[in-house]
Amino acid sequence: SFEWCCRFNAFARKCDCFRDGWFVFDSGLVLFMVLETWAMSIVLFSMNSDQGLGGNMSIMRIARLLRLSRMARMARLFRAVPELLILIKGMM
Q: DSSP for 64-81?
C-alpha cells in the first residue's frame, strides 16, 4: 500500500489515476489485500471457525499471480535492455 500511495501522489491530476489501467488493477489488489488481511480476519474471528469463506480467497490469489507476471515482464525487459537497468540504478 506504500507503493500505491507513492503512485497516487505521482499523478499531477488525481482523477487521471482512474484512467491508468495498471493503477486501477493495483488499487483492486490493495483493496483485496486489506479486505483479506483485516476484514476477513475479523469475520473469521467473530465466526470462530477456521474454514469460513476460504473458497473465495483463491480469486484474490490469482489476482496476485497476475501482478507477479507483470513483475516478471519488467525483469524480462531489463534483461533485453541492460542500459535501462543502468539508468534506473543511476537515478536511485
A: HHHHHHHHHHHHHHHHH-
What whole-number distance in Å separates Cα of residue 34 and Cα of residue 30? 6
Instruction: Please give the distance of CA 78 from its chain centroid, rounded to a whole number.
Output: 20
Count Cβ atoms within 10 A of the Cβ of residue 23 and give its class: 0-12 exposed, 13-18 middle, 19 or more buried: middle
User: Does the pLDDT of residue 12 top 80, yes or no?
Assistant: yes
Q: Which amino acid is at 18?
A: F
pTM check: above 0.85: no
Q: Could you tell me how many helices (H) and strands (E) the chain has, helices first? A: 5, 0
Q: Which residue has the cell 490469489?
A: 61
Neighbouring CB atoms inside 10 A of 26's CB total: 19
Q: What percent of the chain has pLDDT over 70?
A: 77
